[in-house]
Amino acid sequence: MSQERITTLLTEKRSYLPPEHGKSSAWICGQEEYDALCRRALDDPSDFWGARASQLIHWFKRWDKVLDADEQRHKYRWFTGAKLNASFNCIDRHLISGRRNKAALIWQGEDEMDVRCYTYQMLYTEVCRMAHALSSLHIRKGDHVALYMPMIPELVIAMLACARIGAIHTAIFSGYAEGGVRSRIHDSKARVVITADAAVRAGKFKPLKANLDPILEKCPSVAHVVVVRRAGLDNVTMQPNRDIWWHDLIDDFTLNADFPCEPMDANDTLFLLHTSGSTGKPTGIMHSTGGYLTYAAHTTQWCFDMRDDDVYWCTADMGWITGHTYGVYGPLALGATTMMFEGVPTWPKPDRYWRIVENFRVNILYTAPTVIRSLMRLGEAWAERYDLRSLRILGSVGEPINPEAWSWYHKNIGGGELPIVDTWWQTETGGAMISPMPYATKLKPGSAAKPLPGIDAAVMGSGGRDGEEDGGSGHLVIRKPWPGMMLGVFNDEEKYQSYFSRFGCYESGDGAQVDADGYFWILGRIDDSINVSGHRLSTAEIEAVLAACPEVGEAAVVPMPHRLKGEAIYAYVVTRDEVPWSEDLRKKLRDTVRRDIGALASPEYIQFVEAMPKTTSGKIIRRMLRKIAGDTYEDLGDTTALADPQVLETIIIGHQNILQGQHETATAAGDEPASEGKEAAPGA
Ligand code: WTA
User: Fold this and answer.
1) Measured between alpha carbons, how far is 631 from 621 in angstroms, rounded to an integer?
2) Which of 122, 304, 503, 516 has the most neighbouring CB atoms within 10 Å?
3) Can you give the residue ranges of the Acetyl-coenzyme A synthetase N-terminal domain (predicted)?
4) Distances (CA, A) of 415 to 364, 370, 392, 436
5) What is the mean pLDDT of residues 471-497?
6) What spacing in Å lies between the alpha carbon of 427 and ligand 1's midpoint?
């Protein structure tokens, strides 16, 4: 990916000026205003962030200090001494600001006739009832609640009910399978898990509750399971005294059952969300209440130029950070109308998104490159039939967007005029960090443009020097704290410190290059993560699952470029003595990964090898495996470190055989990771 991106960078010369129409009423209107904000944020960060926090958030008690920084331990505490509640900010205050009957959440179910619309008042009622219900299960401030739920309104209601009580929610993407769910529940020590009988996806049911039951046998912290009846399955096993239906639970609480908001410290944890860790164990990223919420509202307003009458649709699953920040907390804190879609873009036909845009007059659409690429492949005719004129701003997130996809999106969805905000950020950053401002920034297809005001992004060489390497590319770092920054890593201080250990400031794990205009071009992950259709997966986690199979002696997993998914998973496997290489074994290994982590982690290719390329000290040289998988083995770099150079030649021949036989070997599994997509990605 990075090589392709670097080539792109050198050849991409197009640029697009921000639209004139609508500029005068924009939050940031024009380059000069943006530049002035950057200067102000740099000169006096406390003043800048303090002002934003005052404008955007309702505080029960104001802060003593905007930022309390412990540079030695890289601990940054924002708005210390302040009190607030996220649920109050996302609901209650809008009830008295004239938005009581405004649509807060519009939900489109997979069936087109299945639509629910919650006004702010209705959301308030449901969130209060759920807060009472959780409280009746003895959930209190600081307790953990896991949400293993599909894209249904109850997920948003559950998040806001937790926030109201001060309980910490941990969402677990409903596409995860056994191992992924268990490790997350274990790590968070959740006392309650909220789930559904099944997730509905492309006409099929995925039985979440039944998947959960065996997992819970090994999760002693869980006292109760609350089950939403979504699919109406009639064979759901409910364990007495532990499991309870959502509708039975809230039935005890009437529609006027107010539940007061718990005043939280600005630095109390609002939620935990796991990313794939580099060791195979997921990393529980903790976000604060005050800093995170301020940053979510701030970036939603500026990056999307959010206005009061906008219908805003972030297509990401709410179980990911994008859904948290830009599906729930950001838009609701601003009192906006947020859309939620249960289905996938290609089912029953590849016009699903455009029907929704037309039906609900969506103004702002925020989606992922993987979705754009898959719809692009199916042709523009699907979009042409619909009236997309309500759209004002388009967004992209999750992985680098290739200029071809950018141009398709711009021309066919944006009529060649709409600004595309390509927002670069991560679970750890809480919100967008590098992104155009729709009415201020000149766009270059494939570049996320410039850091937001107050964000000090830079590219560094490996040696920690301030500067670049490899033809101008290097490690993307953030040198100053910002309010959306993670609070810590749950129960893993060492992991938290590892983000700062190399450069003394926040290291993103991404590679980037800055051009002469100061535009950032993100090259993708340079750590041990793979980004499949916008999902961040850990190579170590997949390797551990493969290595645990009795037939496997050793496994190494690397990314390979993929036309639709951006990156796909390529696994090298050494079998144990006497175990023959076979298609059956390939299938078994894929099934094991799918069962344990989820379909999204299933390898695109599995190459059996005699041995791994290793250094004389026995370390696998992944750099070489990555190049072979990416078909760029003409330049394998220095091979003198290899204990046995012969190994490499055999692996290259094996790789070529795999590519030749790709029609047979790229089995159905190849398409499945995207069908479990984070961004409700393609299913057909
Ligand atoms: C990648 C998702 C290029 C990047 C918000 C990052 C991107 C990882 C972009 C974080 C973008 C996200 N351009 N790459 N606009 N947005 N990424 O934690 O590699 O799920 O490190 O957060 O996605 O993934 P995460």
Assistant:
1) 16
2) 304
3) 34-90
4) 14, 20, 10, 19
5) 94
6) 8
> pLDDT confidence of 468, banded at 50, 70, 90?
low
Ligand 1 center to 522 CA (angstroms): 9
Phi, psi (rounded to 5 degrees) for 229: -85, 100
Residue 538: pLDDT band by 50, 70, 90 thresholds? confident
For atom 5 of ligand 1, which residue has the closest CA? 426
Tokens of 137: 């299960």
* 629 three-state secondary structure: helix
Span from the CA of 637 to the centroid of ligand 1 (angstroms): 28
Mutational pocket test of ligand 1: of 510, 535, 538, the residue with most ligand atoms within 8 Å of the beta carbon: 510
- Other CB atoms within a 10 A radius of the CB of residue 517 amount to 11
- pLDDT for the residue 505: 97
User: Cα of 630 to ligand 1 centre, how many Å?
Assistant: 21
- CA 368 to chain CA centroid, Å, is 10
Decide: helix, strand or coil at residue 230: coil
Q: How far away, in angstroms, is 426 Cα from ligand 1 center?
A: 5
How far, in Å, from the CA of 297 to the mean position of ligand 1?
Answer: 19
Atom of ligand 1 nearest to the CA of 275: 18
| DSSP assignments along 301-317, one per residue | HHHTT--TT-EEEE-S-
pLDDT for residue 663 is more than 60 = no
pLDDT tens digits for range 8-50 = 676 788 999 999 988 999 999 999 999 999 999 999 999 999 9
* Chain mean position to CA 82: 28
Mean of all residue pLDDT scores within the chain: 91
- Closest ligand 1 atom to 508 CA: 21
CB 62 within 8 A of CB 82: yes
Q: Is the pLDDT of residue 659 over 60?
A: yes
Of 370, 424, 441, 519, which is best to mutate to test ligand 1, by the most ligand atoms within 8 angstroms of its C-beta?
424
Which amino acid, residue 250? I
User: What is the whole-number distance in angstroms between the Cα of residue 494 and the centre of ligand 1?
Assistant: 23
pTM of full prediction above 0.85:
yes
How does pLDDT run across 320-330, given as a tens digit for each residue? 999 999 999 99
Q: DSSP assignment of 353-407, as one string? A: HHHHHHHHT-SEEEE-HHHHHHHHHT-THHHHTS--TT--EEEE-SSPPPHHHHH
Q: Per mean pLDDT, which of 136-145, 509-518, 654-663 is the most reliable? A: 136-145
Pocket of ligand 1 (CB under 6 A): 275, 320-322, 397-400, 422-427, 448, 508-510, 522, 524-525, 531, 536
Q: Which atom of ligand 1 is nearest to the CA of 509?
A: 21
The domains of the chain, with CATH numbers, are: 533-660 (3.30.300.30)
